[in-house]
Amino acid sequence: MSPSDKSKDARAKKGKKATGRSAAKAAAAKKSTKSAGGAAARAAKEAVAAAKAAKAATEPPLRGNRVRKRPGSVSTTSSKAKGKKRSLPPVLSKAPPVAMVIFGASGDLTARKILPALARLADRGVLDDGFTIIGVARTPWSDDEFRAHVAEATPEGGPKWKALTGRFKYITGEYDHPDTFAQLKDQLDEADRIDGTDGNRLYYLATIPSVFGLVAGALAKHGCAGPGSQGTFARLVIEKPFGRDLDSALELDDQIHASFDESQVYRIDHYMGKETVQNVLALRFANAIFEPIWNRRYVEQVQVTVAESLGVEHRGGFYETAGALRDIVQNHVMQVLALTLMESPTSTDADRIRDEKVKLLQAIDIPTPDEAVDKSVRGQYTAGVIDGEPVVGYRDEEDVAPDSQTETYLALRLRVENWRWAGVPIFVRTGKRLPARVTEVALTFRQVPFLLFDHKTSRDLRPNTLILRIQPDEGISLEFGAKVPGEKFHVRSVAMDFSYEEAFAGSEAADGYERLLHDAMVGDATLFIRSDEVRQAWRIVDPYLQAWSEPGGAMLFYPAGTWGPHMADLLVERSGDEWRNPEIDLEIAGGRLTELPQ
Ligand SMILES: NC(=O)c1ccc[n+]([C@@H]2O[C@H](COP(=O)([O-])OP(=O)(O)OC[C@H]3O[C@@H](n4cnc5c(N)ncnc54)[C@H](OP(=O)(O)O)[C@@H]3O)[C@@H](O)[C@H]2O)c1
Question: Helices 350-363 and 531-549: crossing angle, nearest 10°?
C-alpha cells in the first residue's frame, strides 16, 4: 500500500471518529474475611457445610465435584483450598523511564490494544514518572487532539494514567518525509529534558508492514536508532506480519538490521503474551509427570485448532492480503507448536528458550509444493448460519473480491522429524466462521495395549487426551476413562479440568499486550520472536503459498457455521484419525451422548 492509499478526507474524518472501547471488565475479586474463630465463625462454617451437603445430595455423583460449567469435569482444586485466595496478582517490575514513539498512532491497533494496555500498566504503577508517548501518523492532529483520542481510547484510565497523558505529543507526518523524523528527534530531546525520559526510546511499529523498513532506516538516518552512550536503550517493537513470504521476510530483516542490531529488535506476536501460552512452559518443565510421556512412544497425534466464529468483520481489505496461513499459521500456530514440542531449555534466558524453539521449527518437515498440496486443505466460507443468525459468504464481505482466492480455512498435516516426535502426525487447522471460538492444543495418547472391556461397555471410552485450552475458557483438561456409577460395569471418558479463572481467582492477569509492552520496556525478549524463528516459520509455510499460487491451486468451500470442508476430514482420516470436535467432545466428557459420533 502506498502512502497515498488513504484520502486526506478519510483521515480528517478519522480525527473525529470515536475510537474508545471499554476494556473488558475485570472479574470481581472475592474478599476473603479473616475469622478469629468463635461462635460466629463456627456457625458460618456449619452453614456452608450444610449447604454443600444439600447440594451434593441433589446432584448426580459424577457432577458433584464440578466447579465449572464444563460438563463432566472434576475439580483439580481440593475443597480445603477452594475458599482461600490461592494466588497473588503477578507483579510486573517497574519499567525504566522511556519515550515511547508509536508509528501508527491514529490506527486501530493503537486505539484498541496499545493505549488501553499502557493505561493499565500506568494504573498498576508499572510505568515510570519519566514515561511519555510521541504519536506519529498522517492524520492531521494537534497534541490536544491526540490527547483527546488517547482519552477516548482509554475511558477506564485512572489517575496515574491521566497524570501522564497531558504530556503526550503528536507529529503529523508521512514516514517517507525527512521532516517527520527531524521533528521527532527534536521532540525526543525535549522529552529527555522536560519529561525525564533519560534518553531511552521504544519505537513501536503499529503501522502498515510495507513501511517497517522505511521507518527503521529513517530513524537510523536521524540518529535515533543507536543505544545511547550511558547505557540508554533504543528498541524497535515490530508488529506482525513480518514479511509476506520467506523472500520478503529476509529482505525486511536486512533492512531492519542495517539500522538496528538484532538485540534491539522485538518482533511481537500477541499470542506469546497470553498466560495459557506461557503456561505450556510451566506445565512441561515445572512438573515431573509429563516429560516421560511427552514423546512418540505415548503420544499418538497432536491437533492444534485455532477456530473463530467471526468472519473478517471490517477488515476484509486487510484479510485479502493475508489469508489464514499468513495471519495465523506462520506466526501463532508455529509459536504454540514450538513451545509444546521443543526440548527443555537449559534456562529461562530469552536466547536459551528461543534456541530450542528454533531447533523444533527446524525439525518440521518442509514439503515440496506438490507434497504441500497433498498435505493441506484450504477453503473459503460461503453463506451460512452462526449462532442462529444468517451470515454472508466471504466473497460477499466488504472489500473482498468476488473471485477472491484468499483462504479463510486451512488444515495441514505436519511432521516433526526428530527422535521425540518422528511418526506422530501433527494436524493444524484454523478458520473463520467455524461453529465456535476455540484455540487449543490436544495431545491424544495411544490406546492401552489390550482393552479389558468389550465394546458394549466401553463404547464411550476415548483415548486419553490432554487439552491445552488457550482461549477462551483458559486452562487444561485431561480426558480419561472412569467407571460409570451403577451395577453394570460401564466405562466412559470424563474430563478433569484446570481452569485459570477458578484456580487463580482474584489475580489480575496482564493481557497479552500489557505483558509484552512491559517486557519490551525492561528489555526481556523471551516472549518476542527472534529473526531465525521468523525465517524458519516462513520456510515451513512457503511451499503451501507456492503451491496455491499455481493456477487451479485447490480452493474448497464450506458453509459458515460448519467445521470446514469435508476434505479436511479426509486429511485426518488418512492417518486413521479424526478431528476433535471441541463442542461434541465436551458433551462426551459430560456423558450427554450415549453414542460416539461416527
Ligand atoms: N488491528 C489489529 O487488531 C491488529 C492485530 C495484530 C496486528 N496488527 C498489525 O498492526 C499494524 C497496524 O494495524 P492497524 O490495524 O492498526 O492498521 P491501521 O488501522 O490501518 O493503521 C495504520 C496506521 O499507520 C499510519 N500510516 C500508514 N502509512 C503511513 C505513512 N506512509 N505515513 C504515516 N503514517 C502512516 C496510519 O496513519 P493515518 O491513518 O493517520 O494515515 C495509521 O495510524 C499492522 O502491521 C497490523 O498487521 C493489527
Answer: 30
